[in-house]
Amino acid sequence: MSDKVLFCCTPGYSKMTGYYYRVQRDKESLERLGLSVDIVVCSNFMSTLKIFLRSFFLRKYSHIFFQNIGASVPFVPAVLINRITGMNHYYLIYHGSLDDLASFRFYKFRRFIYKLTEFLLVTSKTKIICVSDYMKTYLCNMYKNFCDNFFVIPNIPSEGFIDSCTNLLNVSKHDLREKLHLPQDRFLICYAGNSQPWQKADLLCDLVKSLPNINFVILTLDVCFFKSRLTTACENVQILTVSNDAVPMYLRASDALYMLRDDNEVNRCSCPTKGVEYLLSATPIIISERIGDLSDEVAEAESGLVVPDYMLNDQDKLALLISSWANDACLAPGKIPDSIKNKYTIKMQDYAYNKILDL
User: Fold this and answer.
1) What pLDDT is stored for residue 1 in this prediction?
2) Confidence check: pLDDT of 262 > 90
3) Please, what is the angle between helix 201-210 and helix 315-326, to 10°?
4) 197 with 222: CB under 8 angstroms?
5) Which of 99, 137, 250, 338 is 20 to 30 A from 109 in CA distance terms?
6) Which candidate, 83, 132, 70, 91, places its Cα nearest to that of 290?
7) Alpha-carbon distance 14 to 28, whole Å?
8) Segment (H or E) for 306
9) CA 171 to chain CA centroid, nearest Å
């Protein structure tokens, strides 16, 4: 059997977002296992047709991965025929809930097509790789006869980020703050992200104003957004754009990391890479309930504050909760058990793919 693998991606791959980096992590993992990986973007009908012909009729690839549900739609006929011929092995990397399409045009039509595609792929025994245990359970409850074909490989940071976090564990917070020009004698909350509504950036700005005794450092590309909402009167916040290489130092130098999001199906099924980075930094996380598997893992590790969902709509109570938690004299640095930390390692990702592909 050929050792060549094809990754079919949607045009979002070219935008260098989290989707792009997930594809790259998967590619690196399979190459470490000795496979050759080609990546193609299904950007229009003709390019997709060429990919279909190469993969199905020329039998050039033994393993074909659809890097999200949208990339799999044109290939459903090949998957159905493959139920009889068994020529190829098909895999779907399922990045999250279909509710994530709600902001797109023709949402109801797209959801119908993708839901039908999901059903055809699952019942054709395509191997479905989820990004969280919650998502796997969610799908298993819908397709009880096909649970053996569902797997979990979470999103993980780059090898460089993981190494940086490991190396910084032995550097004192005092030294890091001195290097980064951060206040030494104040409780410090860090947020690394932009201004998308689902990251609850407006709530973060309100908390900065409500908690003058706590300092905040915001690492973002949307500097103008945050500066427009946090006037010069807010002396307890620094708004910065820093290189990716510097982010682990800020995470380790902080007392807590901010990650509050709404309770919805998108967030429950998700595995935000930023959240995994937070977790691996071993700095306590202020996190809302039911963000993929991360909220339960923070609670299990006793490495942060899990905020009840109802408090997201009550800024005063939320500010009081965070203030009380920050003032706790017993607040200790986060310590992540190996049972959780190992889940987000490159070694575990390679092991999972080796098992799924039956190499």
Assistant:
1) 45
2) no
3) 60
4) no
5) 137
6) 132
7) 17
8) strand 304-307
9) 27
Q: What number is the average pLDDT over the span 146-166?
A: 92
Non-local (6+) Cβ contacts of 265 within 8 A are: 97, 99
* pLDDT of amino acid 53: 59
Q: Hey, what amino acid is at 122? A: V
Phi, psi (5° rounding) for residue 289?
A: -70, 150
In percent, how much of the chain has pLDDT > 90? 59
The tally of CA atoms less than 13 A away on the side-chain side of residue 131 is 28
Please check whether residue 143 is in contact with residue 121, taking contact to mean a CB–CB distance below 8 angstroms.
Answer: no
Give yes or no for a contact between 302 and 282, defined as CB atoms under 8 angstroms apart: no
Stated pTM of the model: 0.88
In order, the DSSP letters of 230-291 are S-TT-TTEEEE---GGGHHHHHHHSSEEEE----SHHHHH---HHHHHHHHTT--EEEETTS
* Residue 103 three-state SS: coil
Q: In degrees rounded to 5, what are phi and psi of residue 106?
A: 55, 40
Question: Which two three-digit tokens encode residue 206?
Answer: 């309100």
Reported as a pLDDT band with limits 50, 70 and 90, residue 100 is confident
21-56 pLDDT, tens digit each: 999 999 999 999 999 999 988 876 556 666 665 655
Q: Which residue has the tokens 């510097």?
A: 246
Given a cut of 70, is residue 333 above it in pLDDT?
Answer: no
Maximum distance among all Cα pairs of the chain, rounded to whole angstroms: 69
- The 10s digit of each residue's pLDDT in 284-308 is 999 999 999 999 999 988 889 999 9
The b/e string for 218-245 (b: 16+ C-beta within 10 A; e otherwise) is: bbbebeebbeebbeeebebbbbeeeeee
> Is pLDDT above 60 for 329?
no
**pLDDT for 103 beyond 60:** yes
Give the alpha-carbon dihedral of 128, 129, 135, 137, to 10 degrees: 60
